[in-house]
Amino acid sequence: MKFAKQLERDAVPEWRAKYLNYKAGKKHVKAVSRALLRSPRNPRSAAERRASTTSNLELPLPAVRPSHERTRLLGPADVVRRLRRASVSATTPPVVAPPCPRRETAGASTAESPSGLRRIWTLRSEAAQFDVVRDRTRDFYDFMDAELDKVDSFYRTKEQQAGQRLGLLREQLHEMRSRRLQEMAAESEGDHGAASQLSSAEPGLAKSAGSGWAQPIRVKMFRPGPNSEALRAMPQTPRLPACSTDTRRDYSRRPPDDDVSYRTAKHKLKLALQELYRAIELLKAYALLNRTAFRKLNKKFDKAIHAQPPLRYTHERVNNAWFVTSDVLEGHAKTVEDLYARYFERGNHKLAAGKLRSLSRKVTDESASSFVNGLLIGVGAVFALQGLVHGSRLLFVGDSRVRDEASYLLQLYGGYFMMLLLFALFCLDCFIWTRNKVNFPFIFEFDQRSHIDWRRLAKFPSFFLFLMGVCMWLNFSGYGAEGLYLYYPVLLVCVTLGIIFFPAPVLAYKSRKWFVYAHWRLLLAGIYPVEFRDFFLGDMYCSLTYPAANVELFFCIYANQWENPTQCNSSHSRLLGFFLTLPAIWRLFQCLRRYRDTSNVFPHLVNGGKYAMTICNYVLLSVYRIHGSRTNLGLFIASATINGVYVSVWDLFMDFSLLQTQSRHPLLRDVLALKRRWPYYCVMIVDPVLRFGWIFYAIFTHNTQHSTIISFLVSLMEVFRRGLWALFRVENEHCANVAQYKASRDVPLPYHIGPLMDSASAEPTPRRSVADDQAQEQQQQATSPSAPATGSKVAVRPRADAVIGRSLSRRLALAHTQDFVKRRPSADGGGGGGADGPVNEYGEDFEDDDEDDDEDDDEARVGLRRRFQHISEEDLKRGSEGPSS
Q1: What is the membrane topology here (predicted)?
Q2: Residues 684 and 652 sit within 8 Å (Cβ to Cβ)
């Protein structure tokens, strides 16, 4: 594999602009090679040409010069060698000396001859060609120096941030340990006196420790686990009087109402250490890949100019750079492993290192998954089409009851198919994101250890399509049991739910668990903080109004045992209209929750107004279907028009961040993740057009219930539009992370440690500057190294309206980043422990913590006490210091 492709594959997507621009470097090398090819190969060839132009009876001009005036012309190898020596030593590159002027001798008449004039012009052209070689070589070394400074400065910044995060986590772990020891001490006492003394010494701890008549029972039933025993076995620092505890600390206690339980704090700090270790590994890979890129580019240059000794720039400049010589990250990684082992793995360093190093799942071959997907889709599509043909024939039989039953059965299967289609489009989006290096697992905050490839994910819609096809074929072909004719949809739904909720750790268990928990959070929208998966799933359901209406239809029909099924359709059921508005209601509650958390009217209340208009639109549609009348139709058309314009503008300006007038790419944005631009222009046209699919409801007004085919087709258009929306919405979020160089998340911390938390939250997030965008544009697209200069830069003062327009455009483009809460420490230091909802705010289980804290093996506890006996007072003091630098 060529290194350029390897660099593109292994680079961190969010840091792509901060890597060595290998392609631009290769252009510089090619420019030097072309300049060398156009220059004379060596001085000997020039001398031979001069000798051939002179008369056989006269001596050549250099022969009559004094020895001290003889000057050898510099060949290309000499020029490049001197330039390399000059560039490395940071001096001005040497200038090729022109030929020494000849003395006015008897041979001067020879210079006036045609052969002499030809020789003068030849020497001048050779000197000009050597100047080109010199300029191209200087450009190459200037490029290498600029790229080296870029890589080195970015590495230093990220290394410093990792050190600050490590120091903060160290203090948090010490705080967790001290609080846990206080709780265990209170539990061991088990009387009111100890609890009251603890409350007076440390406010807020007595509440978490617990007291009262149930305390002895609690102590007997819930014994501390091995990790807690290990914390107790750690040697203690000398205890100070209680009155002077807070005065000697550099932080303050949180109020008692915001106290965090040990299990919550332990889970958060474990995640924080894992994320920090992953960030350190990413930075180490960044340094190694850039070092390899510099070496390979230097090797190509040396090969082009035949430099001796080779790799001199690498040895003298790159190998002395900070990102190569620094061992700070190695120390940070060992410190994280030590902390993880000491606090979470009972001192087992090998086990801790193994868990931390297995955070990223290795890429595996998914060819078998692709084969299974193709097989299931092919067989399922055949069965589904056969069932659809047989079911369509039943719509034209003479028995009206059979016609109605077949019609409603097909509607139920149609709603199921809509969900499968959107699921399949999401898998297709995952494929496109993977091909274009869009880091969607980081955006959705998937667990890297259990994250499955998009081909394995596609097994679910493929299998469900196969299952639906078989059920449809058995339902309408006559081969199935007659008693199950009306109950095949029930069988299909039950099998689907059984697979999703299957509790055994098989069939991508953690992914299914994540999926179920995401729906639970959506069902309780407004109670939980809004994460990316919450609002994304809510928006996906906003396009599944056809399946949402089928929920009411399904339960209504089977509750009435298929007696008079027309009472359940949209012309009679108000409950069906409510289910149409339910996804928009969820999103409205999420917008209100975001406004409650941030107090920002824009974009949250404005976004909530969009969903309020959507709710109004579906309410008027339901009213028109039930009551009819031209007035209701006019109200629906007016509401749908306003809503269509509203949501189309929001999609283009906020969700996609397009139509930016100041962008380098016309009507797009500065940072683009897709390799081609035409998809952006297509979605700018297709999305608004599909948003106005409701027009068909207004056109076919002869049937107040509206044709089921029209409803199905309009919903099908909306599902395809949502698939496009998901593609560009996640791509836009990835571009926002690229602009901030954000490749790892900041897990909120449980405790408020004043100065450290304040300094950590005050750290500015690095953003992509305009200079970075322009530099990348110039390196990747615009110019080759041999391009002519465009002239000097002229400073033009921007107009006031241009500044206002740019500010408004930027604000609209960044509005999408506020749709969900970022997992980072807040300014007040609150980590979200217990204030934002249930204890487990990440949707992840506490299985590891339960195993650690609920074991009561006496032998294990005795062994843990002995294991931690070797931890000395000096180790604790060293652990309480800041990270090494």
Answers
A1: Multi-pass membrane protein
A2: yes
